[in-house]
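Hi support team,

I've been running sequence recovery on a batch of backbones for a student project. Most finish fine, but this one hangs at about 90% for roughly twenty minutes before it completes. I'm not sure whether the input is malformed or the queue is just slow. I've pasted the structure tokens below so you can try to reproduce it. Let me know if you need the job ID as well.

Thanks,
M.K.
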């Protein structure tokens, strides 16, 4: 994807309480940990952004994985049906906003939503 599309995606993700993982070009797999998007994505610039205090050029992104079965830790201590419903609504809103960006390379299964670079 081009830098503008990545910037738009990351801006949307940074505003949502979802966990994600990033796989860079040349990496065999995703990192072991997933991070809360609204806490670790910052400084979304023209050519790069900051992810967990590391500057990453958009061209280095291979796949971004949004984890569908994890609610941010600060919210899970009292996880109940209401908060689970809130998380489901959050994912639906996020999916809708990403789809509004146009044709994205999105794939989805029961565990995650993947956005891949072209």
């Amino acid at each position: 994807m081009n830098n503008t599309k990545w910037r738009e995606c990351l801006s949307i993700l940074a505003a949502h309480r979802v966990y994600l993982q990033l796989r860079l070009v040349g990496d065999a797999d995703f990192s072991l940990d997933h991070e809360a998007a609204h806490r670790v994505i910052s400084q979304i610039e023209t050519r790069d952004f900051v992810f967990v205090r590391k500057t990453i050029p958009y061209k280095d992104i291979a796949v971004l994985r949004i984890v569908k079965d994890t609610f941010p830790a600060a919210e899970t201590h009292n996880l109940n049906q209401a908060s689970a419903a809130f998380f489901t609504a959050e994912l639906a809103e996020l999916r809708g906003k990403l789809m509004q960006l146009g044709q994205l390379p999105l794939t989805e299964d029961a565990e995650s939503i993947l956005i891949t670079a072209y």
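--
Follow-up from support: It reproduced on our side and the slowdown came from queue contention, not your input. Residues 81-100 form the longest helix (20 residues). No action needed from you.
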